[in-house]
Amino acid sequence: MSGMKDIRNVALVGHDGAGKTSLAEALLFRKKATDRLGSVATGQSNLDYDPDEVNRYTINLSTAPVEHKGKRINFIDTPGYADFIGDAVAGMYAAEIALFVVDAVSGPQVLTDRLWRIAEEMKIPRAIIINQLDKERADFNATLEAMRAKYGDNLVPAQIPIGKEADFNGVVNIIRMEAYMSKDGVKAERTDIPEELAGQVEAAREALCDRTVEADEDLMMQFLEGERIGQEDLERLLALAIAGRNVVPVFAGSATNLVGISGLLDEIAAFFPYPSKHPDFKLVGGGSAKFNEYPEFTGQVFKTLSDPYVGRLSFVKVISGEISPGSDFINSRTGKKERAPHILRMVGKESTPVGGTVLAGDIIVIPKLNDTMTNDTLSTAGDVTYADMPLPAPQYPVAIAAKTKADEDKLGSVLRSVVDEDPSLIMDRNEETRQTVIYGLGDTAIDVLLNKLKTRYNVEAELLPLRIPYRETIRKTAQAQGKHKKQSGGSGQFADTWMRLEPNPGGGYEFIDEIVGGRVPRQFIPAVDKGIQETMEAGVIAGYPFVDVKAALYDGSYHSVDSNEMAFRTAARIGFKAAAEAADPVILEPMAELEITVPEEYTGAIMGDLPTLRGRVMGMDAADPGWQTIKALAPYAEVVNYTIQLRSLSAGTGSYTIKLEGYEQVPGDLQKKIIEAANSED
Predict the structure, then answer these.
(1) Angle made by CA atoms 536, 540, 543, in degrees to the nearest 5
(2) pTM higher than 0.85 for the full model?
């Protein structure tokens, strides 16, 4: 390998079960990067090594670098489950092309659609392999047509399968017009193109040329005038057409039977984009930077893992300059200097040290960067900060607590360590509700978190009902006396207050001093104000903070010896509570603004369901072609876990954003239940 043009970074993405990890295992095995063909089905995968992955499915991205025909190809295997979509996005961010792996039986599925839209937004080129063509009911043509209907007619076959289902044993290479056959995992041998495929092959070649020549205006005119495009021109332009997103090449294969794997490697090496074709990198504060724009080393951490033996591992995309083992650099977030004691390449959990210089465009792993997290920018000068990756925001909150007293002290620091590794998790300590809240992308992600705490850190945690931050207020004006009198030998305590409460919608808390004639001495009035605020914090009817009230102190009395600040604070608490109870107190609930984006066919189900959540549809806008965004307002308590509801209603295709926006009075029957629940906690 001689330079940056000899690097290929390819993210393997798609729906769970399509065979992404099996494909990566096949590519590694074919290039002898591993000594055995890893199997997901038997739990013997080289890339799915985490216990949760062995028992479930891929939950972390992993790298699979191979050398082929003078090119270093860094494959990034990514999860295919919605709760771990953040790693799929990170993999695409670090790559120059997304290779979508699609099951030949099921066709494009839910996460395929979602990731395709994200790749479109990221302006990243795409390719497709229709995998598992040896399975019963596998159909290359039907799958291709289903994808073209969804994703556009720039999807063109670069390979066509020879044989169907159990008889699938080869491919026709449309780019080079060559056929290759293999059987039982033996390396493919060149053969004649089967006569029965001649028509299909010719049509595919025409479609490939038609799309490819769009990269050259002169050749396009010649092609439209009926001239045949030469092989040299086709191969020269195909790489440009793929990088320019004019062509999405579609390959055929079976990862488990190793059919089509060698041909796929050939085309990746020859035609997939190299790092300089990467979309510009956005910068913090605005603007962007092209690949290798800076002379010094810059890189961005796109994944962090903790290894029980090696420690923290930072996966870095080298964006400019070069780096060697022992290099120093600065983390722009912390301003601290870090050092790369070693530079690694990793196949799953197995690492190989890099001895020399790593060029811009490559993907490496740096161990033991303890102050470095995912999304951090590393650079020689420390004056560059790349913007965070466009990861989906976690919207699924759960309250978490240690199961035992012994684990209470450890849980906070352990959670912080896990969250620092994974930006698809957010931790928040809500002092109002006195709960530690974790936000994830779904219930499965939370389940994996709990298991990780137990198996990796020996901390057992449990989930608790999430407390909703309700509020209390009044709807009427009322007044009451608050009197505190205590005599128990020696100095006593005496304070007498009369106060009036009025609703103050949207105005917060106001204290009004209406005392005249010294009925309450000046020095005690601040104590009355403080006593009122203490009562408001604790609530009156259900223990939730009181809001939006005017409190006027208009009369009172005192004792020249027994009155003091503490007595007036106590009297104020008594008076406020009495007045509030007489002023028609009510509970307010936080409202949530939702923006729900779904395919058009699911809009009816979403809009029909929102009223059952006491929600109101506020509007609807067209999103991408075939998609709608529904704007709604609903009580937060009803949609706090809307992730699961939406996944069910939209067959996993929908996404949403949520933010709290104001408070509204809860219905009377619900208020009664909230008060009863609060009393039962006491």
Answers:
(1) 85
(2) yes
